[in-house]
Amino acid sequence: MIVLKTQSELRTMLKPCKISADALNVAEELIRPGITTKEIDKAMHDYIVRCGAKPSFLGLYGFPASACISVNDVVIHGIPDGYRLEEGDIVSIDVGACCDGFHGDNAYTFIVGNTTEENKQLLRETEAALYKGIEQAVVGNRIGDISHAIETHVTQFGYGIVRKFVGHGVGKALHEDPEVPNFGRAGHGPRLVEGMTIAIEPMITMKGDGVRIMPDGWTTKTVTGANAAHFEHTIAITSNGPMILTKRK
């Protein structure tokens, strides 16, 4: 069931969404060769708590950390640990915060130092695909219009689209209806109406669609070993067009 938010509820969602976005800023300031993913996770956790919120991911379905930190060929759900970032790595960080009964959710893929032009293009076009999807998030369109816009953009570069995992509604629960795939047919799926809040999150690989979940039950890698990128915003469907609730400064 898709839960529509009132204007009052949308205003309440602004705070956890801002905290989620600012937590990515905390991570960005720390990212450098030599820092561990666990150190980044702790800093993000501490920031969220200082803001009077709770990390949405911590303990969710048993996840053991406050942020998913995924390096290179890890697409999503990387568990922060003692791995030290290296020059040229790309690191996707997905984080959410909960306060006043609502969640915010966002993700961004960062470059550690300098990296290959191939990696830079992957990040650039994956982020562009996110905004192509957001452009379609208008009243009267359908979820499939978002999905099709993302798919159309990334496939022209020969990239793979992760199909096992998709975007989702966000609100009082971190994961709500509807599902928001990164592939699909325009004009299909649930119709977009004012008050819907959804997380659009392209998960794109340099090559191939297949992923495999590692023995820890979380870490999700590309089957091909190719690098992957992940960008995400929580947005609201409004009569004035899509509103990005997790916009970073």
Can you describe this structure?
This protein is about 30% helix and about 25% strand. The chain has one domain: Creatinase/methionine aminopeptidase superfamily (Creatine Amidinohydrolase, Alpha-Beta Complex), CATH 3.90.230.10. A 5-stranded antiparallel beta sheet has the order 8-7-9-14-15. Strands 1, 2, 4 and 5 form a 4-stranded antiparallel beta sheet that branches. It has a 3-stranded antiparallel beta sheet with strand order 3-12-11, with no helix packed on it. Helix 1 runs antiparallel to helix 2 and helix 3 runs antiparallel to helix 4. It starts with 6 loop residues before the first helix and ends in a 5-residue tail after the last strand. A hairpin with a 2-residue loop joins strand 14 and strand 15. The protein has about 250 residues and is an alpha+beta fold. The radius of gyration is 17 Å and the shape is globular.
Concise synopsis of the structure shown:
With 249 residues, this protein is an alpha+beta fold. It has helices at residues 7-30, 37-50, 117-135, 143-155, and strands spanning 54-55, 67-71, 74-76, 90-99, 102-111, 160-161, 167-169, 176-180, 197-200, 203-205, 211-213, 220-222, 228-230, 233-238, 241-244.
- CATH architecture type: Alpha-Beta Complex
**Compute the gyration radius: what is it?**
17 Å
Number of strands: 15
Domains counted in the coordinates: how many? 1
- The chain-level structural class is alpha+beta
Instruction: Identify the CATH class.
Output: Alpha Beta
Q: What would the average pLDDT be, to the nearest integer?
A: 98
Q: Helix and strand string, N-terminal first?
A: HHEEEEEHHEEEEEEEEEE
- Strand proportion, as a percent range, falls in 25-35%
User: CATH homologous superfamily name?
Assistant: Creatinase/methionine aminopeptidase superfamily
Strand order of the largest sheet: 8-7-9-14-15
Shape: globular
Query: How would you characterize the largest beta sheet?
Result: 5 strands, antiparallel
What name is given to the CATH topology? Creatine Amidinohydrolase
Number of helices: 4
Q: Summarize the amount of helix as a percent range.
A: 25-40%
What's the N-to-C terminus distance?
33 Å
